[in-house]
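Worked example 3. Consider a protein that binds manganese (II) ion.
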Amino acid sequence: MKSSSITIAGGGSTFTPGIVIMLLDNLDKFPIRQIKFYDNDGDRQEVIGKACEILLKERAPQIKFSYTTDPEEAFTDIDFVMAHIRVGKYAMRELDEKIPLRYKVLGQETCGPGGIAYGMRSIGGILEIIDFMEKYSPNAWMLNYSNPAAIVAEATRRLRPDSRVLNICDMPVGIEELMARIAGLNSRKEMDVRYYGLNHFGWWNSIRDKQGNDLMPKIKEHVAKYGYTFDMGHHQHVDASWNDTFHKAKDVFALDPDTLPNTYLKYYLFQDYVVEHSDIEFSRANEVMEGREKTVFKAAQDIIDKGTAKDCNFHPDEHASYIVDLARAIAFNTKERMLLIVENEGAIENFDSTGMVEIPCLVGSEGYEKLSMGKIPQFQKGLMEQQVSVEKLVVDAWITGSYQKLWQAMTLSKTVPSASIAKKILDDLIEANKEYWPELN
Ligand SMILES: NC(=O)c1ccc[n+]([C@@H]2O[C@H](COP(=O)([O-])OP(=O)(O)OC[C@H]3O[C@@H](n4cnc5c(N)ncnc54)[C@H](O)[C@@H]3O)[C@@H](O)[C@H]2O)c1
Ligand SMILES: O=P(O)(O)OC[C@H]1O[C@H](O[C@H]2[C@H](O)[C@@H](O)[C@@H](O)O[C@@H]2CO)[C@H](O)[C@@H](O)[C@@H]1O
Ligand SMILES: [Mn+2]
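Given these inputs, the predicted complex is written out as structure tokens:
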């Protein structure tokens, strides 16, 4: 069986250890001969790198391992780049979340003004990694789950149209796992779904088991009462803010009981609720810095101090196994059905053909084939037209350096009440992002 060489871009990410262990757990399905980490913050990456070096030596000594900040070393002789970079790190995420809140507009990692700000930072970082990959390993594939995936995907469509990049998100995966349990199944893999939308902005309109039985009624009954909250009965800790998001899906569902919604729609449909439930002194970035970041880096330091990863506090990120499914689909032409963020080109019949939509695709060694989702209802179409225009205007602004386009993007976001508030938020974000955004005129 073919054995792959992988570079994890964003080696210093809080998700890296969980993904490495998950990769080790799946070696029978997806053999690996080499893992490299790449990050542009050598100090941050070193902690995770040193700990993973110890862990890999103990658990999979046959896999060659290294970590580096040198692009040539990182991207030479590889088959896949798994990219999860966060340009500006949590310090900038905190500002993305808190600046809009000054004006009573929601602050979120990928939605609204915060998502726009993050997009303006991410585009350059992602393009740079694609270029490194193509320079040193021209046949490699980049599996990108760096956010904001919608804006990143539109930028790659426009600026690197021929590159081997697949953009994917784990939110539908996470929700489908909950749906499967709600329906009395053991895994989302026992379901066939139809889903359409943009990234962090979509709906399921069919969920069936492998015998073709319709699971929507049972799942809808649960969601109408409890949203997606469901006790999975395992050790994975869910932060309070995520529980609230899963619960709020109940109200999002009420607005269109014909479909089942992605949790992120709460930010566009219940903006006032989100603002009322936000704390400008302590946003999600603070929660993550106090929680996941501290836990992961402490676990890494413990491994380094003890010189062993036995009984360590790194845990497999089981739900990230969708990344293995994706890599496997390309390496072994499995034709697995997966949700990807791809150019529409008629897959959603009555929607912008150049929009980057999230829909089921069959993935194989030549890339993906899109499944047709037919016509979508007016409500979803209206919301999507507005949001896709925001995403396109952000990429226009990044390419041309246009203040005007970015102001239009901000104004058009359903999360922002007026052009004047959009301008105030934009001006504060420009000041905060001087180091990262192209200069706007
Ligand atoms: N698509 C999905 O479903 C999904 C799920 C979870 C996380 N994510 C994304 O994964 C990313 C990582 O999240 P995290 O919370 O672990 O963040 P993190 O800050 O812990 O890690 C990101 C790493 O990227 C590095 N980095 C930043 N800019 C870089 C560049 N230009 N080149 C190389 N490395 C760079 C940072 O130094 C940091 O070590 C984020 O983009 C997040 O939004 C996506
Ligand atoms: O606020 P964060 O940093 O914890 O998460 C932001 C990411 O949220 C989504 O991923 C979730 C996943 O869907 C959920 O089920 C949970 O178990 O973990 C994941 C990561 O926390 C989303 O899809 C990502 O794009 C976000 O970056
Ligand atoms: Mn996502």
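Take a moment to read the result before moving on. The first helix runs from residue 16 to 25. The chain has three domains: 4-167+286-320, 172-277, 378-433.
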